[in-house]
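Marked as duplicate of an earlier ticket. Keeping the data here for the record.
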Amino acid sequence: MTFDVAIVGYGPVGAVADLAEKLPGFEMVGWFAVVAPDGTPAAAIERGHRDLNALLADKDLAERIADIGPIADGSMNLAQVGQFLRDEAARWAAVTKEIGLLPE
Protein backbone atom coordinates (compact mmCIF):
# COMPACT_ATOMS: atom_id res chain seq x y z
CA MET A 1 0.00 0.00 0.00
CA THR A 2 1.30 3.46 -0.83
CA PHE A 3 0.26 6.81 0.52
CA ASP A 4 0.62 10.21 -1.02
CA VAL A 5 0.82 13.40 0.99
CA ALA A 6 -0.85 16.67 0.10
CA ILE A 7 -2.25 19.65 1.93
CA VAL A 8 -5.34 21.75 1.42
CA GLY A 9 -4.35 25.36 1.12
CA TYR A 10 -3.10 28.02 -1.18
CA GLY A 11 -0.46 26.13 -3.10
CA PRO A 12 2.38 23.75 -2.30
CA VAL A 13 4.38 24.04 0.90
CA GLY A 14 7.93 22.93 0.31
CA ALA A 15 7.90 19.46 -1.24
CA VAL A 16 4.25 18.82 -0.27
CA ALA A 17 1.77 19.46 -3.06
CA ASP A 18 -1.56 21.19 -2.72
CA LEU A 19 -4.37 18.62 -2.88
CA ALA A 20 -5.93 20.43 -5.86
CA GLU A 21 -2.80 19.51 -7.85
CA LYS A 22 -3.40 15.83 -7.13
CA LEU A 23 -7.18 15.96 -7.55
CA PRO A 24 -8.05 18.48 -10.26
CA GLY A 25 -11.27 20.29 -9.44
CA PHE A 26 -11.01 19.56 -5.71
CA GLU A 27 -12.02 22.46 -3.53
CA MET A 28 -12.30 22.57 0.22
CA VAL A 29 -12.95 25.71 2.16
CA GLY A 30 -13.00 25.67 5.93
CA TRP A 31 -15.92 27.40 7.58
CA PHE A 32 -17.55 27.89 10.95
CA ALA A 33 -21.22 28.35 11.72
CA VAL A 34 -23.08 29.00 14.93
CA VAL A 35 -26.04 26.64 15.19
CA ALA A 36 -28.82 26.05 17.70
CA PRO A 37 -30.67 22.87 18.67
CA ASP A 38 -33.97 21.95 17.06
CA GLY A 39 -36.84 23.64 18.82
CA THR A 40 -34.98 26.86 19.57
CA PRO A 41 -37.49 29.70 19.23
CA ALA A 42 -37.20 31.51 15.88
CA ALA A 43 -36.96 34.86 17.66
CA ALA A 44 -33.86 33.67 19.57
CA ILE A 45 -32.24 32.42 16.36
CA GLU A 46 -33.00 35.68 14.55
CA ARG A 47 -31.62 37.74 17.42
CA GLY A 48 -28.46 35.64 17.61
CA HIS A 49 -27.99 35.92 13.85
CA ARG A 50 -28.48 39.68 13.95
CA ASP A 51 -26.14 40.16 16.91
CA LEU A 52 -23.43 37.92 15.46
CA ASN A 53 -23.57 39.76 12.13
CA ALA A 54 -23.26 43.07 13.99
CA LEU A 55 -20.10 41.75 15.65
CA LEU A 56 -18.71 40.52 12.34
CA ALA A 57 -19.37 43.94 10.80
CA ASP A 58 -16.89 45.49 13.26
CA LYS A 59 -13.70 46.03 11.22
CA ASP A 60 -11.36 45.65 14.19
CA LEU A 61 -12.90 42.35 15.23
CA ALA A 62 -12.97 41.09 11.63
CA GLU A 63 -9.25 41.89 11.32
CA ARG A 64 -8.47 40.08 14.58
CA ILE A 65 -10.39 37.02 13.38
CA ALA A 66 -8.66 37.15 9.98
CA ASP A 67 -5.28 37.27 11.73
CA ILE A 68 -5.89 33.75 13.08
CA GLY A 69 -7.17 32.40 9.76
CA PRO A 70 -10.92 32.51 9.21
CA ILE A 71 -12.58 35.15 7.09
CA ALA A 72 -15.33 36.88 9.06
CA ASP A 73 -18.27 36.98 6.67
CA GLY A 74 -21.77 37.62 7.93
CA SER A 75 -23.29 38.19 4.51
CA MET A 76 -25.66 35.18 4.46
CA ASN A 77 -29.22 35.42 5.71
CA LEU A 78 -30.69 32.60 7.80
CA ALA A 79 -32.16 30.77 4.81
CA GLN A 80 -28.83 30.92 2.97
CA VAL A 81 -26.94 29.60 6.00
CA GLY A 82 -29.39 26.70 6.28
CA GLN A 83 -29.05 25.88 2.58
CA PHE A 84 -25.25 26.11 2.78
CA LEU A 85 -25.16 23.65 5.69
CA ARG A 86 -27.47 21.21 3.87
CA ASP A 87 -25.37 21.48 0.69
CA GLU A 88 -22.11 20.88 2.58
CA ALA A 89 -23.58 17.87 4.41
CA ALA A 90 -24.75 16.35 1.11
CA ARG A 91 -21.43 17.11 -0.61
CA TRP A 92 -19.30 15.45 2.04
CA ALA A 93 -21.70 12.53 2.47
CA ALA A 94 -21.25 11.82 -1.25
CA VAL A 95 -17.45 12.09 -1.00
CA THR A 96 -17.23 9.75 1.99
CA LYS A 97 -19.52 7.24 0.28
CA GLU A 98 -17.53 7.41 -2.97
CA ILE A 99 -14.22 6.67 -1.25
CA GLY A 100 -15.70 4.17 1.20
CA LEU A 101 -14.80 6.16 4.32
CA LEU A 102 -16.41 4.67 7.41
CA PRO A 103 -16.46 6.00 10.98
CA GLU A 104 -14.20 4.15 13.37
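See parent ticket for discussion. The chain has a mean pLDDT of 82.
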